[in-house]
Specification:
single chain; 8 helices; mainly alpha
Length: 187
Amino acid sequence: MAGRLAAQVGAARSVVSRATTIPFLVRCAIGMSGVFAMLVAWPLELVGNEYFVLLALIAIWPAVAPRGRGASVAALTVVGGWLTATVGFGTTVALWRVLAIATLLYLGHSLTALAAVLPHDAVVNLDVIGGWLLRAFAVVLISAVLTVIALALSADLAGGAFLVATLVGIAGAVGATVLIARLLQRP
């Protein structure tokens, strides 16, 4: 047991000693987006005490091990915090919170995908990261604008038309998922 732990500590030292700046900064951005998402999502009553240490550890997990399940666990923890805040603590659903959580989760997820394929000792041109972030911010901006438009239209389309549009949207999402799954199973 002690030999295995010593080998893991030695491997971690090797990784840290060989790490280059850009991959390190990508991982720092993953951790920061996770921590900020936790701060926005969870109620202040729970963030301001000893629970925040656990939330912060979950938030930085994808930065430390981007190829594992950390990104999913962190995202589900953020969503669980938002549900806890809105349902359990009666926090009102505010557009800024929803957009901030969605933005931080998407950026964290996108950067985790980048970190999963980016070796810790890679020499990376800053244009690669800049282009990656530019595309991610474009997705966030387009999603935010469409969300605001959809919310504005939902007030006008309340009732049966809104229900039909919701069901058609869900059916379209399910259809797209089935189509993608079938395409991936092709030889």
